[in-house]
Amino acid sequence: MQRKEFRDGCDPMSIPGTSDAYTAYEGASAPPYELMDNCFTHENMRMTDAGSKSGRAEQLPHKEQEEFDPYQRHLNILYVSEQDVKEALLHYVSSKHFYRSTPAKHMKVQNIVPLNTYRYRLETFTELRQTYRASELYDGGFIDSCDVAPPPAPWDVEVDPPPLFTDCEMHIPIPHTYSVEKCPDCKGRGKTECPACRGRGKKTCSACNGSGMTLQEGFQICVFCGGSGSIGKNNISEHVVDKNSGFPITRLQDVTGKGLFTDEHSLIYPIINFPEPSINESSRACIEQHRMQFASESRILMQKQTVEVVPVSKVEYEWKGKLHSFFVYGNEKKVYAKAYPGKYCSIM
User: Fold this and answer.
1) How far apart are CA 310 and CA 71, in angstroms?
2) Hey, which bits of 100-251 come out as E strands?
3) Of residues 63 and 203, which shows the higher confidence score?
4) Cβ–Cβ contacts within 10 Å for residue 250, how many?
5) What gap in Å lies between CA 138 and CA 190, rounded to an integer?
6) pTM here?
7) Shortest CA distance to 272 belongs to which of 5, 3, 36?
8) Most buried of 86, 146, 222, 302 (most Cβ within 10 A)?
9) What is the DSSP track for 58-71?
């Protein structure tokens, strides 16, 4: 069976989960195959967006297959100069207690090789709601109990949307779940035994302030918090293409890259036709993993996938007739130097 891709001949607004912001460029996200089959019923359907073009849906035109080619050129760009790498190494050496700065100051740079790599990131912002009981002092007044109206389910409570892709907590009581009960601390007496005087005196109960009663919020108190309410949590998965250059890619977790594109929707589809195959596969695998992991117990509010090119440069230099090397990486121009020739020898 021939694979179909979501590129031409289908109005994206006819597919559930897409939005008005779905552009032709973001069409690198492809819907599930079963949806594609429904989209391409007519061979020459035209997209409704301005500037769209018609064509056969079963195979991408050659021109569109090269859509990502310009991004491959980013891998060959040298993002640092000789002055940049010298300053980066000097800054790195100055942060080490047993490193001499002389090699960094007087090294002769022989070559700077771009080893830039791609980083894929999927962010899935989810909301989880749970309930717990809470109490407060009752000193009279209206009781919003279930006699007033049936309490809503936790997911039926209106909540202001939290800031996207940012972990947050909110505590929100559910209406019509209040009741008045005897204070559990003093058993409704309004007094508790004083541990300091071993019962020879009395003190006012701090839980009910001497009233003997507390206002109990019912069994459906909804909150945004770990294990006792609702959480807005940003869940992140990453994949970095390892070019086997000797540079440990785990260090790229601490730096930023240069964005190539961003795809943000309430539901996103895997990237297709990216020039690096592992990015396509990581997009598919991460999206499926997040769907299985988060869709059952929480709600997915928004998803965002990005591809960056992370600058990595290998610097080859000469010091005292010998060749050495180090790496400069990230927009921050951090340094990884496994064998720096200016280390002091320490004797224990």
Assistant:
1) 12
2) 108-114, 117-128, 130-137, 168-169, 171-172, 178-182, 191-193, 202-204, 213-223, 231-240
3) 203
4) 9
5) 12
6) 0.61
7) 5
8) 222
9) SS--HHHHTTTHHH
